[in-house]
Design goal:
This protein is an alpha+beta fold. The protein is built from three helices and five strands. Helices cover 39% and strands 23% of the residues.
Length: 138
């Protein structure tokens, strides 16, 4: 994965292992503002900051749909084959799971919990091996 070249080994080796189930999707409509049936799931308590989520998705090249009214950003991807978007909206960070990919809201919540567990592990690596050094330089 050429986009990881030049990053410390724990990052270049760890991110694909931890976040390998996340693949970009060409869906340009997203789920946060569409009329498509989906489950809206709040992020787990004590979750990551929205901007760390933004850094992680940007690092692994997940497509971003951009801003709309009351929406700062929305990333669209597939996680374990299910279409998911994560968005930062006026009232916080949310995940939207395509209803065709899961059976019910409990399955959607479990998928999002696993996603954010993985994002949390990836954030630890990025904070330790990339952001910490960047902050020292500033």
């Amino acid at each position: 994965m050429e986009w990881l070249e030049g990053l410390p080994a724990p990052v270049s080796e760890g991110l694909p292992r931890i976040l390998g189930d996340i693949t970009g999707d060409d869906d340009r409509q997203g789920l946060a503002r569409s009329m498509r049936p989906c489950f809206r799931v709040g992020t787990p308590p004590g979750s990551l900051s929205p901007w760390m989520v933004w850094v992680l998705f940007t690092l692994i090249k997940v497509p971003q749909l951009g801003r709309t009214e009351k929406l700062a950003w929305e990333f669209v991807f597939r996680f374990r084959g299910v279409l998911v978007t994560v968005s930062y909206e006026k009232f916080g960070l949310h995940a939207h799971v395509d209803s065709e990919g899961v059976e019910d809201d409990q399955a959607a919540a479990a998928l999002v919990a696993d996603l954010f567990d993985r994002l949390g592990r990836a954030a630890t690596i990025v904070e330790k091996h990339v952001l910490k050094d960047l902050l020292v330089e500033q």
